[in-house]
Amino acid sequence: MTKDIVWLKDINKNDIDLVGGKAANLGELYNNGFNVPNACVISTKVYQNYSKNGKFNDEVRNNILVVFTKLDRNVSVRSSATAEDLENASFAGQYSSFLNVDTEKKLFDSIVKCFKSIDSKRAIAYRKKNKVKGKINMAVIIQKMIPSINSGVSFTVNPTNNDSNQMVIELVNGLGDSLVSGSVTPDSYVIDKKSKKIVKKSINSNKNISAQKLKKVLEVSNKIEQHYNQPQDIEFAFADKLYVLQSRPITTLKKQESWKKIISREYGVQYCEISLRTLSPELKNHVPYQFYDQIYVPEEGNQVCYMKELQWDKFVQKVEQKYNLSNIKMYEKDFFQRGQDYVDYCKFISNQDLSKKSNIELYKIYQMYQKFSLKYTPYVWTSYVLNLAFSKRVKEIIDSNVKNNSHKYYESVFTPSKKAAILQLNEDIKNSKSNGLLFEKYKWLPCLDIHNLPWTKDEFLEFVKDHKIPENSDKRISYGNVLSKFKIKSEYKKLFDTCKRFAYIKDVKDDFRRQGIFNSQCLFQEIASRMRKKLIDISYMMQGEISEFLKVGKVSKNVKERQKGFVIFYENATVRCVSGKNVNDIVSRFGIETNIEYSEKIQGLGASSGIVQGKVVIVKTLKDLSKVKKNDIMVAVTTHPDYVPAMQRASAIVTDEGGITSHAAIVARELQMPCVVGTKVATKLLKNNDLVEVDGSKAIVKKILKK
To answer: How many domains, in total, are found in the chain?
Structure first.
């Protein structure tokens, strides 16, 4: 063969420029006695020539066919870029690969697709994130297919805790593409490398691997690590014996950064995926700072969004830099326009006779829904950040001028200038003579996610019956008096006005979301019907899975398991969703810690003044709301409009998350009850039926010991 096409026996680790990183490693292993399936590599020279004229010359084409025949005309075709399997960037899964290629047409089509994958969006994003610069070339490996009984990967250092004394081995039955794609949950073993004993295992397949096979993987993986003198990520397969398919450096062993808990809710997969994508480079024209370091994890029946603290801080900083008092009106205009565009398209969907649409027509409608939803969702994040920023500055001004009872001034400044739907409902209940008209006006309110159905008329009438209408209080200081009290300078008045306005925007952002879901629910119901699934199942499907059904009729089998708890996150710039037994392993791998030490006194932020004592009721999901009785202390991670009926029965509100302009704070001030928010730990440290005292003025919750 020529330098255009090179066999593994003629390749070593120094040949990256000619054959790419993956092939160079395979040649290195092959020539040092490791059992690598024989392969030939189409060199970067061929790629360069193909890139110039879009075809193979006759000699190269004939030589490729000779190789194909020598490898028994059943091969894998795998990309091998010159920036791949490097010490600082593995490029795992970034480029294309194909298995069981058994015809000449498939062979050449696969080679071309490997060439073109060098310019895929995810590869470009990965190179940018890892600051890989310079010209990148592509080679392609044509390797004899192994009829795998088991396939897997081994990590010669435990990547979840950086323990160099442990090896992690994951296996699946058959070929390894299901493991790499994440579509199958593998058997997983953590093995002590010295004693060779299994420290931990998780079995998910029907066929447990034998102890002899595990021992062989451990032995070969250790030798490969010793050869390269650094931790390795190794792919292997068992047929008649163990074959090594790939080895690359583990590039993720670094000090784990701390994570910040952001929001918590009973979200399904659909909304979590949109939320993740909103802050990624995919939406770079809509948010001032983008990053992939986000993850939703299950906690106490909810999905909790965590973000890398450093990345979140940068995002907040960039949002505050971009939007200030001089351009905030433009931001507001864009916010309401995007929200209305989203709702209007959803109303358009509701006016269609979807039952007469073909699957492809539904696919196009669904894609447009995703487009409008993605363009609106950045404003959910930015309005949240701006609300916190403006309210923090105003609070500092009030606190610097008032020594005692500053809360009564908060009540005026942080009460919205205009009421979002759930607060406006109070006024309408008070003034309306027809609950039937109110039902038509507000029946969409419970629809925060696809599976949240609107109120039935009976449910709404029950809500109205239990609704506590706040009494007007002469003690509340008017907003005008607050401005006079502090003799606010002109620039400060604009700040106060903006803060008051953003208290409304913070809540109305959910109104857009709820109205959109309410009007588009018919689309998801139609898709569910065609899948022979329930509406809630659609909420736990990823966008790609719904699209795949509408295009080719394939139905995802993972939705039931996800409803018990799922983790959704980015891996190599691609959204992954994992459920079942692997959830805890993923959370551990990301280094997220949720253990909290107990304290008799819980400190938070005082959001509404007053002191009450009462019995704790923990609200973690919507199902817990009915447990809240009159005068109970309602304790939740955070609150939402769905929670209002229970909040009205309570005598005080305590939350883990949120600030003094959060939903809990605003509603508590409307209801004139004590409220402590942002405790971080209340739902974990308090238990149902604990007797506590809530002091909204001092922002303290403390247990009362029974005599």
So the answer is: 5
522 belongs to a structural domain: yes
Q: For the domain that residue 17 is a member of, what is the CATH number?
A: 3.30.1490.20
Q: 140 and 162 share a domain?
A: no
pLDDT at residue number 201: 82
Do 475 and 408 contact (CB within 8 A), yes or no? Answer: yes
Assess contact for 198 and 189: CB atoms under 8 A.
Answer: yes
Query: Do 63 and 5 contact (CB within 8 A), yes or no?
Result: yes
Q: Is 581 exposed, middle or buried (0-12, 13-18, 19+ CB in 10 A)?
A: middle
Separation in Å, CA 261 to CA 307, 386, 582, 656, 683:
7, 18, 21, 10, 14
What is the extent of the structural domain holding 68? 1-145
pTM for this structure? Answer: 0.63
Mean pLDDT, residues 247-275: 81
Order across the sheet with 166-173: list the strands.
198-202, 187-192, 166-173, 150-155, 232-238, 242-249
DSSP 76-99: EEEEEESSSS-SS---TT-S-EEE
Identify whether the C-beta of residue 394 lies closer than 8 Å to the C-beta of residue 328.
no
Which residue, among 293, 300, 336, has the nearest Cα to 508 in the 3D structure?
336
Out of 208, 237, 254, a domain closes at 254
CA distance 192 to 163: 10
pLDDT tens-digit series, residues 551-601: 999 998 878 889 988 999 998 788 999 998 788 888 877 878 654 555 568
Query: Please, how many CA atoms are within 13 Å of residue 559, restricted to the half-sphere of its CB?
Result: 22
How far is Cα 614 from Cα 612, in angstroms, rounded to an integer?
7
β-bridge mates for residue 692, sequence order: 614, 703
Q: Cβ distance 482 to 493 under 8 Å?
A: no
* 132 within some domain: yes
Whether residues 64 and 141 fall in one domain = yes
The dihedrals phi and psi of 231, each to the nearest 5 degrees, come to -55, 140
E strand or H helix at 384: helix 359-401
Instruction: From 145, 161, 196, give the residue that closes a domain.
Output: 145
**pLDDT tens digits, 157-192:** 887 667 788 898 988 888 866 555 545 667 888 899
Mention every residue, 6+ apart, whose C-beta is less than 8 A from residue 651: 612, 614, 630, 631, 632, 633, 673, 674
What CATH number has the domain bearing residue 690? 3.50.30.10
